[in-house]
Amino acid sequence: MTLQRESPRILIADDQADVLESLRLLLKPEGYTIDTADSPDGALLQATARDFDAALIDLNYSRDATSGAEGLELLEKLQGVDSTLPVVVMTAWGSVEIAVQAIRLGARDFVEKPWDNDRLLSILRNQVDLCRALRRGRRLEAENIALLTAEAPDLIATAPSMKPVLELITRVGPSDANVLITGEHGSGKEVVARRLHAVSTRAERPLITVNVGGLPEGVFASELFGHVKGAFTDAKGDRVGRFEMADGGTLFLDEIANVPFDQQAKLLRTLETGELERVGSSKTSNVDVRILSATNADLQHEVAQGRFREDLLFRLNTVEIRLPALRDRPEDIPILANHFLGRFAQKYRRTQMGFDGAAATTLLRHGWPGNVRELAHVVERAVLMAGDDTIKVDHLGLAGGGPTAPVALDEMSLDDLEKIFIEKAMRRYDGNVSHAAEALGLSRSALYRRLEKHGL
Ligand SMILES: Nc1ncnc2c1ncn2[C@@H]1O[C@H](COP(=O)(O)OP(=O)(O)OP(=O)(O)O)[C@@H](O)[C@H]1O
Ligand SMILES: [Mg+2]
Fold it and tell me: Are 218 and 231 in contact (CB under 8 A)?
């Protein structure tokens, strides 16, 4: 593990102040964070309020000093609150039967008073490690394992206008700085996000992506923060949120402009403190997550319109990486085109393909409203259309001019028309999917599906 998480947090329950004090003196220098309680109720209250890595509890409290009944009761209640919390019990010297009983009820280990410091420390160390491994295992189960591969994607960037982008990736990639990536639709924002993660110290940990724009209405909080069973009608069980999945790694919030306004304060708080509560729970958990976000909207404008919180923007854009549109980095067009040509020729088992001069010129002249994604789709289609190894202008389907070159209406399919309308709307609203969707009378997710379908 490359990353050191925050110090282990231990809950200690004992009604004797001197015991609490000496345990504190023992554990603090070992790097533990200690919370204490002098009664079972107090301990329970703390355990419901936050996550601990282990609990060390005495079995005897004020009610009666020897039976251990109060401690055993507390043990069971603690397990009810969090089944992954390791509980270690402290018993009076010579009361082995009670210790055995506690182990049967689920205590992970026991120490006899007066305790042996080394033994106590080694028990706690083991339990904390086990607990973290167990919790991580549960999170992984909930995750799509495919999301875990932090392979650095191809990032072709030779144009002078891409130099600042490359420099910023090198400079801030390895840090934990939050980065906002802006740029038009299809300009490579996600590629940059994956690159930033891949060069960071978190590369071995998950990169979790949330397409905020694609989330159905009303599920933002539960998707990001998780929920507990019964939090709302459909909450049949507990659910791990994306923040928890990304713990120790990176969370990529795509289409960040679409965070519902009423959720922005909550998101800001988690970004500021690393604390969150699952929907329906009042228990606070801590996460250690680096935030990357992306948008093709103008967030300053969204702030001015009162749709996006300025304080949230300031949290997100510690560093901003602006991706130029493909038409503003023409030097990259031939290189990208050849890159995609190689990829799709291989995919469709063709060899030695190339563009003829006119096709290459057409690629350079095209305006590329859909940027690199559009280029990739055009090349893929051309590979399929070309009968031999040479791609000619016709195969590009760019009609020699821009995407708006006149074509007779009655030669078009409904699909073609749909594509044209969507392109127009996207251009008109500068690639802002929400606004384009509104203008087209579509939901955001319906528009996303169509953008995908038409390769826009
Ligand atoms: N510099 C690049 N080098 C190689 N491939 C690239 C580059 N930029 C983008 N691509 C490819 O182009 C496609 C679109 O890129 P990406 O998904 O990162 O764009 P985006 O800006 O996130 O788009 P959107 O706004 O639609 O979310 C992807 O297939 C990606 O692999
Ligand atoms: Mg994207």
Answer: no
Nearest to 208 by CA among 248, 260, 171, 176: 248
With contact defined as beta carbons under 8 Å apart, do 200 and 290 qualify? yes
Share of the chain above pLDDT 90, in %: 50
Contacts 24+ apart (CB under 8 A), 397-406: 398/362, 398/363, 398/366, 400/362, 401/365, 402/366, 402/367, 403/366, 403/367, 403/369
Question: Which residues are 322's β-sheet partners?
Answer: 182
In single-letter form, the type of residue at position 422 comes to I
Would you state the structure tokens that stand for residue 264, as one six-digit string? 């922005």
Determine the residue of 190, 192, 327, 347 to mutate for testing ligand 1's pocket, defined as the one with the most ligand atoms within 8 A of the Cβ atom.
190
Is 197 touching ligand 1 by the criterion CB < 6 Å? no
3-state secondary structure of 239: strand
Cα dihedral value 358, 362, 365, 369, nearest 10: -170
Q: Ligand 1, residues 373, 377, 447, 453: which to mutate, most atoms within 8 A of Cβ?
A: 373
DSSP 93-123: TT-HHHHHHHHHTT--EEEESSPPHHHHHHH
359-418 pLDDT, tens digit each: 888 998 899 999 999 999 999 989 888 888 899 998 898 864 444 444 455 566 777 778
Q: Which helix (H) or strand (E) holds 373?
A: helix 371-385
Apex 284 CA angle, 278 and 285, nearest 5: 85
Cα 412-418-422 angle, rounded to 5 deg: 135
